[in-house]
What we know:
The chain is an alpha/beta fold and 239 residues long. Helix content is 28%, strand content 32%. The strands form four sheets. A five-stranded parallel sheet has the order 2-1-3-4-5. The radius of gyration is 18 Å and the shape is globular. The model is unreliable at 127-136 (pLDDT under 50).
Amino acid sequence: MLNKDGMSIKCMIADDEAIAQQIVEQFILQTPGLTLVCKCRNALEAFSKLEQHAIDLIFLDIEMPLVNGINFLRTLTNPPKVIFTTAYAEYALEGYELNVVDYLLKPFSYERFVQAVSKVQLLLTPPLSSSLPGQEAGFLLIKEREGLIRIPYSEILYVEASRDYMKIFTRSTHYLVHQTMKNLESSLPADRFIRTHKSYIVAIKEIRLLRPDELTLSNNILIPVSGSYKEAVNGAFAR
């Protein structure tokens, strides 16, 4: 699990609870490719550590003394990747709006931790060359605050739903759009993308391994496959 420089992903824990720090620290230590650089009890300490160290990923609590995690993140002009670790589910939407990679609701399992870290690995993986022969044409047009953005179909790996928001994961970043899954699915070519679950769409060419209730993408991301979509997924994978 390496970053763009081929090095281990450098992690920071920012959480005022000692037990919560210990749990995340243990999960980091037992996950190959992760390196714990520092631990902080509040946002002021975290800001100081960011000035001292190159950090790839912050495991960030929200309810901390002095400055909460959300306000801290808003002060960063070029933040590392962030995974929220919190006991409060009501902040999930704000987390997506701040472009955090994932939202871990305490108490979370090691398996859920690994799933979140895998998303970071995907985002820190260098994009493939855009000049590859035979690269597929076409793009998805989405609207963000700064205007319209074209996302080439060849760059899209999968889509994950969160209420009326869709998170589109590409080879180099991810985008958050206010749209329903049904509308986004109709905007993607059916010969390139397949619905696997009520909350997921994947690029067919990125499917590496298919199991009865889940599939693995080329970057080792696990995606659930529900019963109502299983037959269609099997057919798309086989063709």
